[in-house]
Amino acid sequence: MRYVIIRDDDTNALTPPDCLERLYRPFLERGLPVNLAVIPNVRTDVLGGNGRPEGYLPANGPLPRDVMPIGSNGRLVRYLLNNPGFHILQHGYDHTFNEFEGRNPDDILYRLEQGARLLGDAGFARPQTFVAPYDKFSQVSLAEAARLFRVVSTGWFELRRVPFWWWPRYACKRVLKKPHWRIGRTILLSHPGCLLSSHRPLETMLESVKQAIACRRLTVLVTHWWEYFREGKADEGFIGVLHETARQLAADPDIAVASFDDVVAGKAAFN
After folding, report:
1. Distance, CA of 264 to CA of 218 (rounded, Å)
2. pTM for this structure?
């Protein structure tokens, strides 16, 4: 059996629930869990690596305040709580550019703990999985995230970002060519890049997903809800690929779509 985890990044207090419904109703109807990496306290003035406002921010501002906790959008929170097929992950704190590349342990701990608190205040269970914005960690933040969460999901692990006391386990992972590994009680999962992305050609996207799944015991498929609605317009072709992905995953008896919580519970093997 091979396992697939759907990870959608950047849900926040400004996310229209209708967008998530449009994208993921075919998954929910088939009983396929969808893991949403939620920004607990989104900054409304944040810029991405290209110096432009992040794509998940509405294009028609101005916005009411500088930061918006997830609980400030009651309609979105109610929608997520009423659809238990959505599993909530913690995605940074406010999504400042590369916010978890910092090395100040007090600042890192504040962001981790405050983010979890805001998710709890909104009514969500304390998340077991952490996702850093842009998948970027420092040694300090990776160590703290691994201490506080049962799963860390990221794009890759590299020596300079791994705490030095992890190096023997990291070397073993590299020798064995394992995409996923464990430190103590914490499971460290990598992914093969954002295969479901508006930056990739639609014609080959589904085939790339299939190839990635065939190469791994567990595959984390990362996407971003807002890429399907760029400039406020639905990309019907891209949405069609996502829905076809749901259909094919559900139809394959050798594939199980899982949540990160399933991995923690031992219901989905990662190696």
Report:
1. 13
2. 0.96
- C-alpha to C-alpha distance for 44 and 42, rounded to whole angstroms: 6
- Output the six-digit token pair for 141: 């933040």
- What's the distance, Cα to Cα, between the start and end of the chain in Å? 11
Report pLDDT digits (tens) over 67-108: 999 999 999 999 999 999 999 999 999 999 889 999 899 999
DSSP code per residue over the chain: -EEEEEEEEEE-TT--HHHHHHHHHHHHHTT--EEEEE-TEEETT-B-TTSSB-TTS-TT---SSSEEEGGG-HHHHHHHHT-TTEEEEEE-SS--TTGGG---HHHHHHHHHHHHHHHHHTTPPPPSEEE-GGG---HHHHHHHHHH-SEEE-S---GGGS-GGGHHHHHHHHHHT-SEEEETTEEEE--S---S-TTS-HHHHHHHHHHHHHT-SEEEEEEEGGGGGGGG---HHHHHHHHHHHHHHHH-TTEEEE-HHHHHTTSS---
Which one-letter amino acid corresponds to residue 14? L
Domains recognised in the chain with CATH numbers: 2-264 (3.20.20.370)
